[in-house]
Amino acid sequence: MRCGTLWITILLATASAWAAKSDSIDIEAGRKHWAYQPLKAPAIPEVTDAAWPANDIDHFILAKLESAGLQPGSDAKKITLVRRLYFDLVGLPPTPEEITWFVDDKSPKAYEDLVDSLMASPRFGERWGRHWLDVARYAESMSLRGRLLKHAWRYRDYVIEAFNGDLPYDQFLRQQLAGDLLKATSVDAQRRNLIATTYLMMGDTLLENQDKSQLDMDYVDEQLDAIGKGMLAQTIACARCHDHKFDPIPTRDYYALAGIFKNVQWLKHGNVSNFMEKPLPISEETKRGLEIHDASVARLKSEINTLKPKVTGKGLPPVQAKDYRGLSWTTRMQKPPVSGLNPVAFQITWVLNTSIPIPPAAKSFIPSSFRREASTQYVFQVRSTQTERPKRS
Fold first, then answer.
1. Model confidence pLDDT, tens digit, residues 28-49
2. Nearest-5° angle of CA 304, CA 308, CA 312?
3. Residue 350 and residue 303: Cα distance in Å, rounded?
4. Is-contact 89 118, C-beta < 8 A?
5. Residue range 146-154: average pLDDT?
């Protein structure tokens, strides 16, 4: 009993201490943490070996090494360096010719030129865009009944093009957060901005949830979680139920953000809810081309409907086969193609020969490889690989 009383006392004291600590969280002090300060250019550190750094970044690396009493390793050989660059930038190995070209290039800009060349390759965006697609929870289906996201590929291509086009990061984020509200100078830019907002649509939300109010808030929570982790490198969703325990995010800030996204209609509710879809804008030239195409299709459908009653009144007559019992059978024996420890049994191929009258109007519907013309009739051969003669009905 004394031990039990002691443990209860310890637990109550610990709970009280945590409660006091939680209540004493200083949100304003937390906002002074270095991670929440505006970016600024730091001072370049001084180093002892001033000849080693090739750029400002090298100064930081060398300063850290020297502070630990370490020296930089030797430079990589060119054959090693070229492979590193190819795998890092495009995810593919260099060909023997590409290796030879780089190793034999004595220019002091050989490294820089190769980096520029690889970053100009379409493979660069495919390689590095994959990392952002992981951040964006990208997928082309959902676990809900294997639901396919048929337009997800547009967002994938947007990300790849953003990397290949060296889109500034701030624009990259704005387009994904509020692309539908950004001004665009062209139809292509407007399409790109709208497609970018797919970032907020990704996620494996339970669309079957029958509590639609709960579903709406779960969807908003998914969006805030993706924004926090993907764009701010911190969790926001923790503050849905309580003030954040470690970061300066109170619950009131969470719901202030949630109110913005809750004000947007993302879902179209039903037994299984669905995403809202908005048609992408198209140019006037494309619009006119589609109108011409639709008019042509409508005209052809009208012509088909007009011609249907004129084809022998009720369409083409069906092909009628003769009585099966009057057919003749021939056999052909084939030797086994391979001999060995497990001999293959002889295969008997039964060949059915029959003449079937074919109306002239139906001639064009029969592939030439399946017919042999004989007057107005065609001879068909039906083969069976059974080892017994096919039974007659």
1. 887 888 888 888 889 999 999 9
2. 145
3. 46
4. yes
5. 85
Q: Is residue 134 part of a domain?
A: yes
Containing structural domain, residue 129: 121-275
**52-77: buried (b, 16+ CB within 10 Å) or exposed (e) per residue?**
ebeeeeebeebeebbeeeeeeeeeee
The helix/strand/coil state of 131 is helix
Report residue 154 as tokens: 């547009």
Residues 206 and 331 in one domain: no
Examine the domain organization and report whether 268 and 330 are in the same domain: no
In the prediction, which pLDDT does 36 show? Answer: 84
* 230 falls within a domain: yes
328 shares its domain with 263:
no
CA 129/CA 156 separation, integer angstroms: 8
pLDDT score for 382: 45
* 233 and 349 within one domain: no
pLDDT of residue 23: 56
Residue at 362 is within a domain: yes
Question: What is the reported pTM?
Answer: 0.67
- What pLDDT is stored for residue 14 in this prediction? 45
pLDDT in the model for residue 262? 87
**139 and 269 housed in the same domain:** yes
**Tokens 């024996």 correspond to what residue?**
333
Distance, CA of 105 to CA of 114 (rounded, Å): 10
- C-alpha span between 192 and 184 (Å, rounded): 9
Query: How large is the average pLDDT for residues 355-370?
Result: 50
| Co-location of 144 and 260 in the same domain | yes
Q: Is residue 294 part of a domain?
A: no
Same domain, 230 and 328: no
First to last CA, the chain: 91
391 — pLDDT class (breaks 50, 70, 90): low
Banded model confidence at residue 312, pLDDT cuts 50, 70, 90: low
Tens of pLDDT, residues 185-202: 899 999 999 999 999 988
Q: Bridge partners of 347?
A: 334
Distance of alpha carbon 115 from alpha carbon 102, whole angstroms: 11
Cβ neighbourhood burial of 247 (10 Å; 0-12, 13-18, 19+): buried
* 229 shares a domain with 362: no
Helices 122-135 and 78-89 cross at an angle (nearest 10°) of 60
Number of domains the chain is built from: 2
